[in-house]
């Protein structure tokens, strides 16, 4: 019988089945669980709540119920004791193929029906942020393909073991494996629950779709390979599994497909392109005496060369947003202060490859150490001639990879058609040269013409409008280092000529920002910090740039004259409630305050890792909100929160029993202990400053102390302010601030 005709007949038969109708109904209901019970994507954006989580729940639930139905269909003839008769009428291999294709067709039909049912609600909730393409991709990649994998997995398992009960147990174990903490941060190893940390509302989710496509293809290749292996195991003439394999292996197509798909899956796994190969190992934990997981190099971390002096860096780079790739050239002016040839270590992002290095007009050789380490680092070694003045030109290109220690967040640079964030050695290779001098960096960056760029340093300048629909922009930073954003930004200009501030935000927020109090938040924070701590050195030539960044970054930050604030801080539910504790207003204020504590003055102490700019910034935010909302508000939403979180941290089982830390999976341990450190920084330190405030005589005296420290030049470890600097300024000793 014709295969397509047989598939049509099988689909019609299945649609008449009451059990199949129940399977379809259950799958339709599954996304509802994503609104409350199953929320793997971080709450913080509307897209995560109304799109990502429901689709992920639909994929998980749909794969399970379709998998169960597949086991039912495959075991039905066996239980009815008609399998021998059925196999004599129709080839079991042919019949298996018909059933698989039919179930996949019904899975597609069910997914389409589910997408149609939830479309109106999703579109209304997202409003202007709704994207038809992302909606289709979400249901296609995260639900339909997951259901297909459930069908393939259960069918393959049954055809190998031929027992429904045992097949169910194995299938369930396979699901639990994908949901276990051992693979929760490995995007390649999660088959039924693809890794989606958070959906962006405003800047697209192309990076997440890229990793999802790759992992889906990997798993489908692996499961197709397993399926064809299981076809080799299909029992013939009531023979044993091994006798059946010897019989079926004569079918060269089955063997060829099995080897091809399994080999494809193996090659995809070993050559996955999105996460680097940095190792996560254990080192001594400073607060518990146990171990802590950190990102380390496969080899000893490289050191710089003190005999070389970098004068300046210029780069020219083009960003291909469709492919997520870079092509660039960097030129370095170097002085060799010795009279000998010198080893030069070039640090670059692991996904970037060097094509050639030309020194003073001659191409030279180099060695790629392939020693991925830390957060996005790899070293190249080359030897520079003994010439005093050296001009080095490096041609490079590739993709920006996610650092392995933050794979679970899929946190890294992004180059997509909706959003660009790229920085440091992703833009241009960095020369590891030991020098106390700060060297300027300048460059040209080519991006699509529909994107507005924002950079650290001087305002970007348009160099050219190109014939291919791109624009080339000039960037420059006197203090070295480079961070670059681009998206569909609009700019809100606030401040004045003495303190200019530009706030870049998504155009999708234009109408909302007119009704919200965002401009007032920015102005009041700047006024408060200028009055309390001092004026910052900004001007028309070097304005303060505030940038809304993608929720994929999972937070904000600040460096030089650039502060970035996650879009999660601007969701309507938060901004419309100004009296809600630790709301977006405080988050925005917190990131701006980092310009004082974190950019222009930085807290660091080699003997007290908890003493960072974050703790002081949290305290400063508390003080500002107390002045604005009163003592009762900050007691409830700051002090009580700090005390509760610190108590919860100290009560943690693993902190009280550090001997058990080494028994945890390394990646789980890494996340757990980073959470401990974060809690101490964000809760313990502000509580210590609050206690110091009481001991020194009150808020005004603490304001004076911090203002003096902000302008103090002769600190213990200038330009940093150490824990001892703070204690000395307060006239206290450490034991007085024990909590």
Automatic annotation (TrEMBL):
Keyword set includes Secreted: no
GO molecular function: metallopeptidase activity; zinc ion binding
Classification via Gene3D superfamilies: Neutral Protease Domain 2
Start and end residues of each Peptidase M1 membrane alanine aminopeptidase domain: 522-712
Transmembrane feature ranges: 20-38, 50-72, 93-119, 139-158, 165-183, 213-232, 253-270
Organism domain of life: Bacteria
InterPro entries in alphabetical order: Peptidase_M1_dom, Peptidase_M4/M1_CTD_sf
Keyword Transmembrane helix applies: yes
Key words of the record: Membrane, Transmembrane, Transmembrane helix
Protein name: Peptidase M1 membrane alanine aminopeptidase domain-containing protein
Organism per entry: Anaerosphaera multitolerans
């Amino acid at each position: 019988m014709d295969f397509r005709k047989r598939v049509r007949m099988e689909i019609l038969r299945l649609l008449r089945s009451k059990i199949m109708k129940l399977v379809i109904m259950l799958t339709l209901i599954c996304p509802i669980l994503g609104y409350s019970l199953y929320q793997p994507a971080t709450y913080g954006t509307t897209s995560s709540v109304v799109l990502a989580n429901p689709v992920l729940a639909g994929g998980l639930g749909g794969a399970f119920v379709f998998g169960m139905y597949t086991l039912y269909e495959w075991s039905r003839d066996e239980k009815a004791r008609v399998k021998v008769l059925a196999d004599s009428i129709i080839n079991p291999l042919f019949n298996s193929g018909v059933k698989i294709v039919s179930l996949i067709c019904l899975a597609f039909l069910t997914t389409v029906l589910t997408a149609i049912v939830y479309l109106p609600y999703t579109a209304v909730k997202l409003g202007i942020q709704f994207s038809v393409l992302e909606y289709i991709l979400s249901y296609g990649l995260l639900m339909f393909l997951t259901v297909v994998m459930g069908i393939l997995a259960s069918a393959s398992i049954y055809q190998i073991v031929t027992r429904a009960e045992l097949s169910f147990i194995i299938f369930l174990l396979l699901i639990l494996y994908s949901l276990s903490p051992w693979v929760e941060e490995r995007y390649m190893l999660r088959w039924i629950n693809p890794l989606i940390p958070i959906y962006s509302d405003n800047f697209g989710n192309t990076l997440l779709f890229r990793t999802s496509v790759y992992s889906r293809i990997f798993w489908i290749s692996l499961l197709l390979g397993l399926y064809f292996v299981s076809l080799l195991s299909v029992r013939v003439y009531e023979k044993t599994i091994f006798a059946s394999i010897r019989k079926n292996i004569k079918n060269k197509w089955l063997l060829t497909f099995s080897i091809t798909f399994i080999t494809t899956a193996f090659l995809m796994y070993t050559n996955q392109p999105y996460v680097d190969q940095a190792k996560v190992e254990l080192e001594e934990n400073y607060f518990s005496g146990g171990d802590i997981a950190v990102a380390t190099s496969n080899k000893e971390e490289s050191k710089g060369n003190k005999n070389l002096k970098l004068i300046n860096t210029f780069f020219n780079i083009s960003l291909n947003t469709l492919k997520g790739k870079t092509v660039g050239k960097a030129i370095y002016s170097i002085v060799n202060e010795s009279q000998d040839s010198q080893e030069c270590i070039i640090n670059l992002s692991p996904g970037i490859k060097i094509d050639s290095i030309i020194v003073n007009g001659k191409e030279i050789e180099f060695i790629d150490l392939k020693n991925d380490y830390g957060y996005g680092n790899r070293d190249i070694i080359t030897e520079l001639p003994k010439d005093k003045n050296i001009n080095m030109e490096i041609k490079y290109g590739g993709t920006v990879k996610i650092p392995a220690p933050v794979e679970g967040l899929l946190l890294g640079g992004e180059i997509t058609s909706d959003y660009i964030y790229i920085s440091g050695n992703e833009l241009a290779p960095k020369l590891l040269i030991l020098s106390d001098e700060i060297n300027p960096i300048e460059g040209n960056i080519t991006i699509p013409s529909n994107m507005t760029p924002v950079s650290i340093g001087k305002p970007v300048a348009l160099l050219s409008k190109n014939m291919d629909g791109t624009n080339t922009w000039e960037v420059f930073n006197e203090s070295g280092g480079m961070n670059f954003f681009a998206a569909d930004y609009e700019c809100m200009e606030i401040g004045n000529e003495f303190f200019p501030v530009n706030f870049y935000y998504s155009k999708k927020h234009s109408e909302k920002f007119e009704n919200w109090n965002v401009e007032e938040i920015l102005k009041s924070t700047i006024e408060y910090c200028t009055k309390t701590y001092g004026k910052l050195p900004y001007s028309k030539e070097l304005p303060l740039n505030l940038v809304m960044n993608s929720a994929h970054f999972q937070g904000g930050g600040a460096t030089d004259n650039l502060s970035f604030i996650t879009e999660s801080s601007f969701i309507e539910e938060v901004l419309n409630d100004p009296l809600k504790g630790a709301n977006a207003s405080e988050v925005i204020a917190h990131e701006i305050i980092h310009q004082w504590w974190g950019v222009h003055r930085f807290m660091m102490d080699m003997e007290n890792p908890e003493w960072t700019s974050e703790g002081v910034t949290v305290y400063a935010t508390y003080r500002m909100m107390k002045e604005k909302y009163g003592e009762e508000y900050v007691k409830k939403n700051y002090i009580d929160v700090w005390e509760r979180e610190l108590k919860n941290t100290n009560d943690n089982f693993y902190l009280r029993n550090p001997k058990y830390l080494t028994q945890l999976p390394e990646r789980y341990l890494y996340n757990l202990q980073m959470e401990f450190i974060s809690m101490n920084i964000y809760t313990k330190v502000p509580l210590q400053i609050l206690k110091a405030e009481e001991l020194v005589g009150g808020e005004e005296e603490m304001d004076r102390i911090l203002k003096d420290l902000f302008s103090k030049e002769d600190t213990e470890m200038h330009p940093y302010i150490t824990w001892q600097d703070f204690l000395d300024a307060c006239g206290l000793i450490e034991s007085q601030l024990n909590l």
